[in-house]
Design a protein that fits this description.
Subcellular location: Cell membrane
Number of domains: 4
Membrane topology: Multi-pass membrane protein
Structural class: alpha+beta
Shape: elongated
GO molecular function: ATP binding; ATP hydrolysis activity
Strand content: 5-15%
Organism: Blastococcus tunisiensis
Protein name: Cation-transporting ATPase E
Helix content: 40-55%
Largest sheet: 8 strands, mixed
CATH architecture of the largest domain: Up-down Bundle
Radius of gyration: 33 Å
CATH superfamily of the largest domain: Calcium-transporting ATPase, transmembrane domain
Length: about 800
Amino acid sequence: MTTTEDAAGGRPGPASRAMLPQRPVTAPEGLTAAAVRERIAAGRTNVTSVRTSRTLAEIVRANVFTFFNGLLAALWVVAALTGRWQNATFGGVVVANAAIGIVQELRAKRTLDRLAVLNAPRARVVRDGIEREFPVAEVVLDDLLVLAAGDQVPADGVVLDSAGLAVDESLLTGEADAVAKDAGDDVWSGSIVVAGQATVQAVAVGDSAYATRLSTEARRFTITFSELVSSTNRLLRAIAVVLVVVGPLVLWSQFRTTENEGWREAVTGTVAALVGMIPEGLVLLTTLAFMVATLSLARRQVLVQELPAVEGLARVDVVCLDKTGTLTYGDVRFDRLERLDGSAVPEGQVRGALGLLAGSDSANATAAALAAAFPSPDGAPVDTVPFSSARKWSAVRTTTGSTWVLGAPEMLLPVPAPGATGQARTRSDALAAEGRRVLLLACSKQAPAVLDGDAVLPAGLEPVALVVLAERIREDAADVLGFFTEQGVALKVISGDNPRTVGVVAASVGVPGVTGAADAVDARTLPEDLEALAEAMEAHSVFGRVTPHQKRAMVAALQRRGHVVAMTGDGVNDALALKDADIGVAMGNGSPATRAVAQLVLLDGRFAHLPAAVAEGRRVIANIERAASLFLVKNVYSVVLALITVATLSAYPLEPIQLTLISIVTIGVPGFFLALGPNRRRYVPGFLARVLRFSLPAGATIGVAAYAGYALSRALDPGDGVAGARTTATVVVLMVALWTLVILARPLVAWKLALIGTMAGIVLLVLLVPAIGSGIVLLEVTPRTLLLAVPIGVAGALVVEAAERVTATVADRRAGAPVGGHG
């Protein structure tokens, strides 16, 4: 291997032997129990600082020590100094938000950590002469690791012996080609074994291993893009800027106005204005929505390895499916052996050759099926070429000088010819057209050659027999694919198997536009240019004989066309494509490398869980949109009121306690239920634009209406004073904000009507019971107050309704979509 260097960052890559520490070679029996204990005591284990979830301290810190919580705490202290305890009650909302966030995240952490243990990768290690499986974290320095195809290398090591070992290091270096490894070569943690077997001595573990030292390029838990998180963060940054600009102006105006009788009133008005601008529960509800979705999926045995992946799956518009292990169960079994005419090889030699081939690659599912049918004969082969997804064949050379090759018929016999060769191709094509998996067994007197570090087929191959394998199609596959088709999601079946076989299976499970073998494309005919490949991907739905490199290219080509791509798979040949896809979905019984790079893992291997995952994503997206709209409406009318009071040098129209009431009944409680309730609305791009489209006119209307109520009360009933005018403004805000809640809650099913009715009932209770209204919320409710406030509130609600209908109609016409609201 040669040294690689990241030109941008100057980071050293997998390279020369000198980069790894020199260690005494471990004996073939592996470490003793005493040596393992010694290394554990010295901390030389494979435990890393990279975690899949936050610690308790990090959870508390994230929910308590935030910019907005700090600002609210400071405002609470200031409000408490005024001596009116009611105006400091908003501090209780802050505490409740933090407590709910901590409790829910700890609950989610416990559940997800338990599931993560089920999905945790394991390593095969030789200790005291016995090969055992251990969690990867329990590997210690100098352990002997037994690697096979499908494994992700758990620690940096040196190859002690190799049987055709080839690893893919593209997760570390970006280089797409597999690298052959012989005795004495280095292997690097994070790389994936794509062929062969080897014994490797671990020479760098834990945080000293190469993959752990990489930043995000090679780490297992990268962050999926989240439109919701990104948009919410943009909103929070904008609100923070507004606070910094408007806050000092409000403070100045409240001390300058003659309507405030002293410093306490000025401070109270400033606190009310600033508290109204702070979205204290928005981040909490966003996090809770993701957490609840994750826990719901966990109950279905779906492990979410990145929270935003729940949202991401709902945004997907193309799903790429591997056939084996996804559309089928992946439990390949031997069906029958068909001898070819003209082959004089005795039956015993054929069966013995198949036994040797099966025994040479135990990590391969096909080899395992053959091993069950053909016991390995006595004696080891002289040489082996392990199966590779890129080559699509394996070989053994026996002591008699014969080379036996087993692989895809069209790869071993690429050009049809007369005689046995022609018969083999004709018969294999016919079997593939029936949906069978077919392998060709061929024999040669020549040994496989090596070209550019990779094995090539021996000359003089003679077809001997066809090996017919059987797979079971998943009973739920057709329903799942039907669901995605109904949702307008394009389906692409990409498989390494014979195109005819793949086409038949795809047709049987209802892939749109596929009627049988003739509709499948042989990937060997596809162009390498991404743009041309994207054209082919758009035009066809089924592809066979796809190499791992092509799977990655297919994902990239679709993404280049603007598609959000999900990739499902279970084999090592799917791992790199899963990592490149926007959302990778792995089967729980798949290879460790595939599970490691996927964002979602179906632990019980049930493909039928995918629609539920999509539904959870849709619920998260649609409900957070509602919650964000509610919060932003309050922020907007708070800013509008603040600017009006600055311009008019009047007292702020609301007390902090009144804002607390408004927040609880029109935002906090209903927002919580709306964020977590069911919602099957399809994903539509433009989350932030829709939130702003609704919130800006609605918030501006409420702000103007509230100040109109305040100003009219001061003008028409000056005897009621500032307290009476604030009561009028509070009633106006409550009325229009409740109607805003009605709009956002549509369609109004029973539980939403009950929610809105309960919030309205609380408002009536506050207004009609003096002990609450006057004693706690500082309202002075009189018939004249209600007579003035109700018409303004109704007018404000009508304006909000009209604005929503107009803006929704304009937006839908621009998008070419049916006119509709937030439902």
